[in-house]
Amino acid sequence: MRATATSLVVRGESPARLVSSLREAGKALTRPAGGLVIAAGGMATKIAEIAAALSRAELGFPVLVASGSGVITERGEVEGESAAAALLWVGGAAEAWVVDAKESELCLQLSRELAARNTMARPETALLFVRPNGVQPHTIEALHGLKATRILGAGTLADSTVYAVAGSGSLSAGAGGALTIRGIPRPIVASSPACKMLMPLREISDVRGPMVLAIEGEPALEVLSTVAHALVDQPLVFVALATERGQDSVRPPLLLRAVQGVDPSRHGLLVSEEVRVGMRMAFAVRDASAARADFEMRIRELARQSAGAAPRFGVCLNCAGRGVSLYKNADTDLRMLKARFGEIPWIGSFSSFEIAPHGDEPALHLYTGVVGLFTSPS
Fold first, then answer.
1. Cα–Cα distance between 24 and 283 in angstroms, integer?
2. How far apart are CA 8 and CA 18, in angstroms?
3. What is the pLDDT of residues 284-313, one digit of tens each?
């Protein structure tokens, strides 16, 4: 039985070796539908050379080329060195494209392009990669309303260009881009933030724009002082936001946000444009044990949702604040994925932020592991 997907990783700084490996991988499949290439380290500095070489290679299928601070395949996580990872698959139809826009309008232009390329609202998956400069939680809201499109994405290295190579070989470059996939089932998605809660979730009772002034009537700054007073080594304290209720004893999906400032006169905390009265929040810190337990729980639920289907390949978009810097060892999240889903091909990056569904719409995630599992009916 011929493979329906394959991945590869090339260490070092040779675009030619990467393209040669990608060409050989394509020969092992029957008419690849598309490809994704992610470059890190010294290979990321040669991303323009990689894209140009892919354009000349006459592969016959579209490829999106983006960067990250590290790369992931089923062979392992690669951080702190030069490498590139690639994924090819068979089935459906893919299209790689980019947009170039001002930082504040990048997500809006991506949204308009997604809508223009799918006027019939056909079910599709969009893997987005965008420069982090200027992307904020509220700018991601420009991607809302695209009900037919399941969006997964990540922030690239700062000032890094995203490249699209069409099946014809034509090359384009921009500040953001997408690989859209139709004709195969959209992935089942799970998101897992790397945090330990310092308190139960409580309702926000007063806000002024992006500033939280009160939590259940208590000044927000006083709540923070109470829960954080016993912390040692001054860890970074986050705000964890919950916009929906959990089921039974399961914690609801969370969005992590930094505390961007304080207003001592009003005892408020500057958090994000998305905060609203009635939304629940808690303070949290990055924690390896809690991250490991939550990731295991989320992929167990992913496996339950995919029961009756055969896993084909997966995408793992991991915050650069996870990996070795969190766990002190490599491959912690990856080992859990492989234990649950076996030796299917994976591709992923360590990123500046992640984009994944939160409720019914895409949202910006921080310090989060996002997993998209592509399946075939059994």
1. 49
2. 9
3. 999 999 999 999 999 999 999 999 899 999
Instruction: Report how far residue 153's alpha carbon sits from residue 148's, in angstroms, rounded to the nearest whole number.
Output: 16
Amino acid at 114: L
Gyration radius of the chain's alpha carbons? 21
DSSP code, position 307 = T
β-strands 309-319, 346-351 pairing = parallel
C-alpha distances in Å from residue 343, one per residue of 79, 138, 346? 21, 38, 9
- The sign one gets for the Cα dihedral 262, 267, 268, 269 is positive
Q: How far is CA 200 from CA 204, 281, 284, 293, 364, in A?
A: 13, 8, 10, 18, 23
Cα separation of 354 and 365, whole Å?
Answer: 5
Domain chopping of the chain, boundaries? 5-192+292-377, 195-286
Q: What DSSP designation does 70 have?
A: E
47-83 pLDDT per residue, tens: 999 999 999 998 999 999 999 999 999 999 999 999 9
pTM over 0.70: yes
Quick one: which of 179, 147, 143 has its CA closest to 163? 179
Say how many Å lie between the first and final Cα of the chain, rounded.
15
DSSP 192-249: EE-EEESS--EEEEEEETTEEEEETTEEHHHHHHHHHTT-SS-PPEEEEEESS--STT
Tokens of 330: 């490599």
Residue 26 to residues 21, 29, 75, 104, Cα–Cα distance (Å): 9, 5, 18, 37
What is the sign of the dihedral through the CA atoms of 327, 328, 331 and 336?
negative
Tokens describing residue 99: 């947009």
3-state secondary structure of 37: strand
